[in-house]
Amino acid sequence: MKKPNINLWLGKTHMDTFFESSTLVVDLSNRVKRNKWLFKDKYQTISEYFKKSDISNWWNPEEGKGDVGQGLFANIQKEKRKMIQNWMKDKKFKKILEVGPGTGRFTDFLSVNFKDITCVEINDKFYKKLKQKNYSNVLLVHDDITQIQFKKDMFDCVILVDVIMHISNIPELFKNIKCWLKENGFLIVDFTPLKWYEYYNKIGTVHRGIDKKEFEVMLKHYQFEITQMFEQKNKDNIVQYLIYMLNNKLD
Questions:
Q1: Distance from CA of residue 88 to its chain's centroid?
Q2: 0.85 cut: is pTM over it?
Q3: How far apart are the C-alpha atoms of 96 and 235, rounded to whole Å?
Q4: Structural domain total, the chain
Q5: What is the pLDDT of residue 71?
Q6: Is residue 1 a part of any domain in this protein?
């Protein structure tokens, strides 16, 4: 199968130039400097914050705690889990990678319905909680997904939910995932669109918005085919999250 000339399609000389001027590559270090209330001068990078801080104060949808587990975000997280689990329940995936499992919001479901799961969790406290669950078929990796490598064609499904909004270089991560996924494997990914991000930006956060068109240009570049896409809207009809089910096509 011939690889399409995405640079010609874009009218760009170099794809890297497009990525660097898009919402897909962002220097998140300024978030650390700007949000002193959040980082409290303890953390120098976003990665360090997610690794060492007690983010369960605001992120704990698995146990219905924190800002994300209650109030505004609670229904978003419940609907998101329901959508993804319903989509996965009849699939026959042999080896799954879950990135950012927290305390097991998808891991519990995966460990019951699939045989071989690898979870990469950066946060120290969440990793310890996952270890205490003693999953028999889950390999737990305590690391930053942007700093590790897996073997080529290792997984037939990757779950990347509530993650890429915190990643500085999204195209670089997708290039790696393209390598880790088997041919015709699936990537489940979501993100916060720019309009909804305006809310986050007012309160100060490590979140960031992503432009839908730019994201889909990247999918074309790495030859991910959109098999399904879900939108979650609020009462004002503003899209809060986009969830993609992507098929890894042959180069």
A1: 17
A2: no
A3: 34
A4: 1
A5: 53
A6: no
